[in-house]
Amino acid sequence: MPFTLRNSICAFAVLFHISCISVASGQSCDCSSAIVPVHVDVLLPKDPTDPFGGLKSNASSLRRLNETYDVFGVYCQPKTAQSTDVVQLLVHGFTYTNQYWSPATEEFRNQSYTDFACDRGLPSFAIDLVGVGLSSRPTNASDVQYATHSAVVTQLARHLKTASILPGVEPFKKVIGIGHSAGSVTLIFGAVAEADQSPFDGLILTGNLIIEPGTLLTIPGVTSARNDTPLRWGALDPDYTTTNNRSILYPTDPTSFSPRMLIFDAFTKDVGTVATFPGLSVSSLTTNYTGPVTKVVGSKDQGFCTGTDRCDDVAALTATERVLWPEAKSFQVIVAPGSGHCMNLDFLAKGPFNTFVNLVNQFVAL
Ligand SMILES: *[C@@H]1O[C@H](CO)[C@@H](O)[C@H](O)[C@H]1NC(C)=O
Ligand SMILES: *[C@@H]1O[C@H](CO)[C@@H](O)[C@H](O)[C@H]1NC(C)=O
Ligand SMILES: *[C@@H]1O[C@H](CO)[C@@H](O)[C@H](O)[C@H]1NC(C)=O
Ligand SMILES: *[C@@H]1O[C@H](CO)[C@@H](O)[C@H](O)[C@H]1NC(C)=O
Ligand SMILES: *[C@@H]1O[C@H](CO)[C@@H](O)[C@H](O)[C@H]1NC(C)=O
Ligand SMILES: *[C@@H]1O[C@H](CO)[C@@H](O)[C@H](O)[C@H]1NC(C)=O
To answer: Which residues lie in coiled coils (predicted)?
Structure first.
């Protein structure tokens, strides 16, 4: 049975995300796509596999990247929007796009965090990272590193607070960053780089725990994108990567998610770069970020929790993680019972969704 797209302006969006704009919106959500030009002027490590993304490098091993990229995003706001003082900036992980936060098919409407949040009065802006989806894709994959992503989300957060991203949408007073997996590492990079200058009024880091350098997560099936899908990516720099096996992103229990979600994932997958995995160790660095921070990880996350006792004692886990956030206004770790790495996409998603909404409301009230 095919997937039925929601409110899509193009029929084969599922296969070729790049060629179409499909905007998911529920009964209570008004969604529009936006393209925001973002100027990035950052120092990148000459070696894109640097585990700290250049944050610990000396000047001689860094190079300057000074570019303007078009960043694609979907802005959703509650139809019954009262005053919208706060917006959530949603940052996807490796091989996902903005659609991680709202899969564009009716069948997975219950997996849409943006709909869930609209139902509870919260707007969101879900972006495609640079190199991904409908955002600019630099010819050279080594320009797509955590420093690049972090500069993009930081600039966007500032933009959201000072300018209108779409006609009729006023600047917001507060921006809460919600990341998933490599998207969380992007937000952590920004927390290290910006510290008390960060424009984010709170961070919700999902699908991430400390990753020490050298303890690479083993993800089967990561491969050069142009070899994986030549029809779509044959002309790309070989350092753009993708995956052909997402099973590790779900719980091992096959009844806890739809088998069709894996098929949908495969249809809609996108790319990362050779910098994605080594740079995950940015999450082992100390940051002087001063806002409130919560990490949310699924107890059945095969990358972080299963097969170890790491997530069993939440107090001990929190104590270990908190050390890296000495200046944070608050810090906690929440282990979502039964959820996998892609906690938005399994049957238990409502649990984490409630957690995110409650955290945003808490952070805004601080
Ligand atoms: C800078 O870093 C590079 C790579 O880590 C190292 O080889 C080099 O010795 C360092 N240079 C200085 C001046 O510290
Ligand atoms: C950086 O890019 C901006 C905008 O394109 C440009 O005006 C500026 O001259 C560039 N700076 C350098 C040092 O190349
Ligand atoms: C979505 O959630 C609602 C409410 O929990 C439930 O009644 C419905 O069956 C779910 N739909 C799907 C497709 O899982
Ligand atoms: C990509 O950019 C880096 C840094 O400027 C350079 O060393 C490398 O040769 C470039 N790769 C390609 C394929 O152009
Ligand atoms: C995907 O990886 C898992 C290990 O995480 C393995 O058990 C499974 O056989 C792989 N599936 C395919 C289709 O290669
Ligand atoms: C955090 O601030 C302290 C005190 O100013 C400073 O010593 C430390 O280097 C800073 N850490 C980072 C990661 O910037």
So the answer is: none
For residue 107, count CB atoms less than 10 angstroms from its CB and return exposed for 0-12, middle for 13-18, buried for 19 or more.
middle
Atom of ligand 6 nearest to the CA of 287: 13
Cα(116) to ligand 3 centroid in Å equals 12
Could you tell me the distance, in angstroms and rounded to a whole number, from the CA of residue 238 to the centre of ligand 4? 12
If you measure from the C-alpha of residue 97 to the centroid of ligand 2, how many angstroms do you get, rounded to a whole number? 29
CA of 251 to the centre of ligand 4 (A): 38
The CB of 220 under 6 Å from ligand 5? The reply is yes
Residue labelled with tokens 């142009």: 226
Tens of each residue's pLDDT in the chain, 366 residues: 566 666 544 333 333 333 334 455 567 899 999 999 999 999 999 999 999 999 999 999 999 999 999 999 999 999 876 667 999 999 999 999 999 999 999 899 999 999 999 999 999 999 999 999 999 999 999 999 999 999 999 999 999 999 999 999 999 999 999 999 999 999 999 999 999 999 999 999 999 999 988 776 668 899 999 999 999 999 999 999 999 999 999 999 999 999 999 999 999 999 999 999 999 999 999 999 999 999 999 999 999 999 999 999 999 999 999 999 999 999 999 999 999 999 999 999 999 999 999 999 999 998
Q: Is 245 near ligand 5, meaning CB less than 6 Å away?
A: yes
Among 152, 149, 200, 211, CA closest to 178: 200
Q: Which domains does the chain have, with CATH numbers?
A: 8-365 (3.40.50.1820)
Number of H helices, E strands in the chain: 8, 11
Residue nearest to atom 5 of ligand 5 (CA): 248
Which ligand is closest to the CA of 326, given by its number?
6
Instruction: In whole angstroms, give the CA distance from residue 93 to residue 240.
Output: 14
